[in-house]
Specification:
This protein has six helices and no strands. The chain is an all-alpha fold. The longest helix is centred in the N-terminal third of the chain and has 26 residues. The chain is globular, with a radius of gyration of 14 Å.
């Protein structure tokens, strides 16, 4: 439906905006929030991807399992990208819910480019599925 296509495009746009936010946070030295934004950029992209199958979930663990079951296992999303999503998922959980979590700048800096690649890959998958 047109509404669904609009929502898919909106979620992808949010993913890219969230990547921009992540860069600002990294530059300002807010590494925990940077990791949070990287995760959410990926989350928005996967959410959009699932919408192409008319699947919607607000549960993060469910979204993660659907990503692996429907896209990583069959090769539509490379295994390394699935692992990167898992790293962001776990790191965001830890940073948001555990005390005294700190990330090292040199450890998390490369995550921005990997996350951009993930979002771009998912966007291209969606374009292929929607035929645009």
């Amino acid at each position: 439906t047109k509404e669904q296509e609009a929502l898919i495009r909106y979620r992808i746009q949010r993913a890219y905006e969230t990547l921009d936010e992540a860069l600002l946070l990294f530059t300002a030295g807010h590494l925990n929030t940077y990791v949070n934004r990287l995760y959410y950029a990926s989350f928005y992209a996967v959410y959009a991807l699932l919408l192409t199958k008319e699947i919607s979930t607000s549960k993060h663990a469910h979204l993660r399992s659907l990503l692996h079951r429907d896209y990583v296992k069959n090769g539509l999303v490379p295994v390394e990208m699935g692992r990167h999503f898992d790293l962001l998922f776990d790191s965001r959980q830890e940073s948001d819910y555990a005390d005294f979590v700190t990330f090292q700048k040199d450890e998390v800096e490369p995550w921005l480019d990997r996350t951009k690649s993930f979002v771009t890959h998912v966007e291209q998958l969606i374009e292929g599925l929607m035929g645009s």
